[in-house]
Target: D-xylose transport system substrate-binding protein
Amino acid sequence: MHQPNRRAAVFAVLALAAGALAACGANEDNGGGDGTASGDSTGSGSAATIALLLPESATARYEAFDRPLFEAKVADLCPDCTINYFNADQDETKQAEQVDTAISQGVDVMVLDPVNGQAAAALVADAQAAEIPVIAYDRFIEGADYYTSFDNEKVGELQGQALVDAVGGAGDVLMLNGSPDDPNAAMFKSGAHSVIDGSELTVVGEYDNPDWSPDNAQAWTTDQLDTIDPTTLAGVYAANDGQAGGVIAALTGAGLPADQLPPVTGQDAELAAIQRIVAGEQYMTIYKPIKGEAEGAAEMAISIVNGEEVADTTDFQGVPSLILDPIVVTTDNVADTVVADDFWTVDDICTDDYADACAAAGLS
Model:
């Protein structure tokens, strides 16, 4: 979802202000995970330091999109700013240590995507006690100063509606939800249930998957298929693409041909998922235009360090927030969504293994 034009106008002013600072070289990646800095702060002493703390790297989006998009936008708005980057590798304790490190480094603002959203409230309080404002990124944190994400209840609603529409009537379905520690997972689950529970579908098995693990998804689905004939399943709700991949591996492992799989949902528009959609193995995914989210967080951070008001926010649970809209992707609109936005190119998607499927989908 592209950001409103008025936000762009506000931050064009900020970009000009940032340009007045002593210029330095473009951001240069010096590593990550342990508080390594990207960028060069050899300019004026007024240059700010921003901590970016992401939860894990197993999900493709964080290293491939969120981090570079955020860093590029900060470099554009504030060439003299430095980013201290951390990745928690899905380890809650490690993330707490990284927050402590960022506090000890005296960063000016913290952008935090928590491993555990509920527990992260204490991390926010620690940062704020050190007079460091916190932007909750992608996952909501109680008490954060700002929040940027997508309409996560709507994500689940869109997934659930897509599954209902694909089945087109009554039938048995499995549900694989996200991690119980992830506040977004609860919203996805609630949104999906709000649609599925009001339909003719019957949930015959449901799983809240720790760490969103694709391996767990495959193992759990395989266990379910010990007592459920896979040919009787009308569909599977998988809360994200990693789990969808595990589900599809379990279904094909149980003997279902790839062209006879039931509709399987997903989220994140991962490359493997887009390829599965083109090939007819996965029914849909949710595309969340990460560029708007990452750049929105960068703009918030630069507003804060410049002492400017953060523009164009809405209220989400008492926190000024930037909430963006998710988009359903099926084989019918791959070209109009992820390809049109340069999220993935046709060359990315249409490797040799998918050349025929791409031709049939009009992508070659």
